[in-house]
Every structure is written in structure tokens, then in C-alpha cells.
Request: fold
Amino acid sequence: MIYTPHPDKYSQMPFRRCGKSGLKLPAISLGLWHNFGGIDTEENARSILRLAFDRGITHFDLANNYGPPAGSAEETFGRVLRSDFHSWRDHMVISTKAGYHMWEGPYGEWGSKKYLVASLDQSLKRMGLDYVDVFYHHRPDPETPLEETMATLDLVVRQGKALYAGISNYNAEETTEASRILRRLGTPFIIHQPKYSMLVRTPENGLLDVLEKEGIGCIAFSPLAQGLLTNRYLDEIPADSRAAKSWGFLQQEEITPGLLLKIKALSGIAHRRDQTLAQMAIAWLLKKPGVTSVLVGASKPGQLEDSLKSLENLRFAGEELGQIEKILND
Ligand SMILES: NC(=O)c1ccc[n+]([C@@H]2O[C@H](COP(=O)([O-])OP(=O)(O)OC[C@H]3O[C@@H](n4cnc5c(N)ncnc54)[C@H](OP(=O)(O)O)[C@@H]3O)[C@@H](O)[C@H]2O)c1
Reply:
């Protein structure tokens, strides 16, 4: 059936300026790391993407290696773009990244110009796009000079293959240095993508300060700690959950009794706020100064529907924040 986006899609979503740039991002963005690969069901992927767009999620985040197999999430997204969203490209902010292992040999990962240029060209081909809105360097490379990596971000923007540049997984010092180089080059470096959630607070140790000082936006990835900050694991490890899968980065051993106690206590606070734990975890991040957008994943449309409801209550009483801190720090 031909897809027609919901006419009220924009009224349902707050849009926030990304740092000091001209680009606004939806408060909630959708990531395609899991559940959009060749091993997944395309109809489910399509349903999640349609729901997202219908609800004002204009930003879709990919990377060269998302799948599995690597590259297949971009292929899936490309097919759905062609079939469903072909007249809506100008309403979408599409990002991709390169940095992690993509192909064998010395030119298939990290931060050389050789790798990044080839990878972006491959990503554009897989998605059937002329350009992405944001191209990220996915992780710092300890060996390639930062000048080379940043000059490549600058190059692809000047070539029109990306509109803006971003970095991901860089710490505060690395970000300061990247920003200094990109500022000198005149590159529109507008966004940083760190891992940030109630359970992973690393960006609070200096990175958020750097981003604010430099006028760079922040999009928090794995805001639900890959599903730990939801009701998914409260009673058991469901067979269809990420932790139950043989591949991926969420291991069953991480779900310790101590962590479960914290998650249950947090879920109790969420319940008193009339929210699910996922909704509270997203709202908590959206309240953090400097966070532009929260980049969620979803394995089913119902999960995204649930996560979107976080926007209905972003207020926290001081007492609630205190209780949350106590649980997280105990
Ligand atoms: N830059 C980087 O290095 C990097 C790294 C990782 C991720 N990312 C980006 O961040 C995006 C999100 O990462 P993520 O998938 O780890 O995010 P997440 O939002 O922390 O976790 C998503 C998972 O949580 C569960 N879930 C989501 N909403 C739920 C809800 N309302 N109720 C119950 N369970 C729910 C689902 O798990 P089940 O699958 O078990 O159902 C879903 O797959 C990625 O797609 C990618 O774009 C970037």
C-alpha cells in the first residue's frame, strides 16, 4: 500500500537546535544499529520507520557497519526510502558513519582519508542517496593523525557528499582538538554522538562542557542502555530480546542481581510518575542541558510508540531527581 505520512507529524514533536548550527533535530531520533539488518524482517523495519516519520521523527541514524551483515541496514533503509519516502527526502536528516571495521585489510576501518572517502561512497550507494545530512567519524583512531581524519570530514562536506560533520565516541580532550582543527578549516562540525544514559554517565565528565563551549550539539546514543532501562528484563530474559541474541554487545552476564535491583527501583519511580521506565529514562536525558536529541532503538513499533510517550512528561521534581541519583550511585 502506498504510504502517506501523517499530516500532523510535525505538531507531535519538539525540534531542538543542534548546537549553534542552523539544523534542528527532533527531540527523539531513531537509530538503525539493530533490527534493520539483512537478518531482520523488512516489513517490521518498514513499520518502525513509517511510525517514526508519522510521529515527527525526522532524523534517522545509520553507520556503514550496521546490520548484520555489515552494510545491510543501509540497504534496507535505502529500499524503504525508495518505496515509501522518495518524495520526503528533504524532510529527513539522515546520518551515517565510518570508523569501525567494514572490510578486510588496512583500508577498511579507523580514520584514514583512504577509508573514510571510500566508505562514504559505499554508504551513499547502499542508501541510494546523493548526500547524507551528517557524516560522522565513528571512533577516534589512535594512529592516523587527527588532522587527516578531520580534513577528510571537511573534504566530504565541500564535495557535497555530507552537509554537516560529526564525531562519535571522542572524549572531551579529543573533541576539543577535533573542534580546533575543524574550526580552522571552516567545517560545519555541529554534532557529537556519545553513549549516554542513566547507566552510562561518561559525557558528564567534561564532554558536555566542551560541547557547550564549542556550540556543538549532542545526540545521546543507547539512551535505554540497549534495553536495560526498560521493562524488558524485569522478570526474565525474553527469547526475542537483544540480550538473548547470540551476536551484539549486550551480554546476559551484564544483567546482574545488583543491576536488576537498581532497574526495579528506577521502574518504581517511573511508575509513580505514570511512566514506563523507558519513558522516564528518555525524559531524564532530554532534561539534561546540552542534550539536543535522544537516539533510541526499537525492535518493534510498539516500543517506539511507548518511547515517544516520554514527551508527555519531561518534568522532574527535585525529590525525584534526588531519588534517581541515590539509586544510581548506591
Ligand atoms: N555511535 C556509536 O558508536 C553508536 C553505538 C551504538 C548505538 N548507536 C546509535 O544509537 C542508536 C540506538 O542504540 P540502541 O539500539 O542501543 O538504543 P537503546 O534505545 O538504548 O536500546 C534499544 C533497545 O531497547 C529495547 N527497547 C526500546 N524501546 C523500548 C521500550 N519502549 N520498551 C521496552 N524495550 C524497549 C529494544 O530491545 P530489544 O531489541 O531487546 O527488544 C531495543 O532494541 C543505534 O541504532 C545507533 O543509531 C551509536
About this structure: The longest strand covers residues 162-168.
